[in-house]
Specification:
With 207 residues, the chain is an alpha/beta fold. The chain contains six helices and seven strands, in the order E-E-H-E-H-E-H-E-H-H-E-H-E. A seven-stranded mixed sheet has the order 1-2-3-4-5-6-7. It is globular, with a radius of gyration of 16 Å.
């Protein structure tokens, strides 16, 4: 995979678990409020792509102290070898969490059918009728809805997340978003941070 960064230890990205986080390069959305804008271009030109061998060496060294690995982005389902990566994580005895925008339900379905995911978090960016404005591109809303249904019915831990971008969404939009969340699924509101520089360097955290 094109891995553009790694956080060796996170206490907040995988609920209830100590996890490492890897960030993939490339996204099919161009959300105007994205705080990982440097991960949007699919081209890795100018980006520092980490070797998978170094990622797995670090995970193997610390797997006794970790409980899981989060694959975030960017949009991880764009990576053709995502399943292989998750299989290798599972082989270390670690749980897997996927952060996704839900635009590729076929990939999501395949990963779920293979039993490669323990937790899925999908961003619900807007009411369906306003999705393109928040995603920054043309959207296949039916595909997004299919992903919501797949996740909600998969029988694994999951959550849906919405960033509250008040200059793009209003109270009526937020109410409509809540109606889009399946019964029994967790929904989390996230605060919009207009200035957020993420350090995704694979440095030794010392834990």
């Amino acid at each position: 995979m094109k891995i553009a960064g790694m956080v060796p230890l996170s206490l907040c990205d995988y609920p209830g678990h100590i996890a490492a986080v890897v960030f993939t390069q490339g996204c099919n959305f161009k959300c105007p409020f994205c705080h990982n804008g440097h991960l949007i271009p699919e081209s890795s030109e100018g980006a520092e792509i980490l070797e998978e061998s170094s990622i797995f060496a670090l995970l193997a060294e610390r797997c006794a102290k970790l409980q899981g690995v989060v694959v975030s982005g960017g949009e991880p389902t764009l990576q053709p070898d995502l399943a292989d990566f998750l299989q290798r994580v599972k082989a270390l005895g670690l749980k897997t969490k996927l952060d996704t925008n839900g635009a590729r339900p076929a990939v999501l379905s395949d990963l779920l059918n293979q039993g490669l995911l323990d937790f899925v978090a999908m961003d619900i960016k807007a009411p369906w009728c306003k999705y393109e404005a928040l995603a920054g591109v043309l959207c296949d809303v039916a595909a997004l809805q299919q992903s919501v249904n797949l996740i909600a019915s998969a029988g694994i831990e999951h959550q849906f997340r919405t960033t509250q971008v008040h200059h793009l969404l209003n109270s009526e939009d937020y109410a409509e978003i809540k109606h889009q969340i399946p019964n029994g699924s967790q929904h989390v509101w996230q605060e919009y941070r207009p200035v957020c520089k993420l350090d995704v360097t694979a440095q030794n955290s010392g834990f």
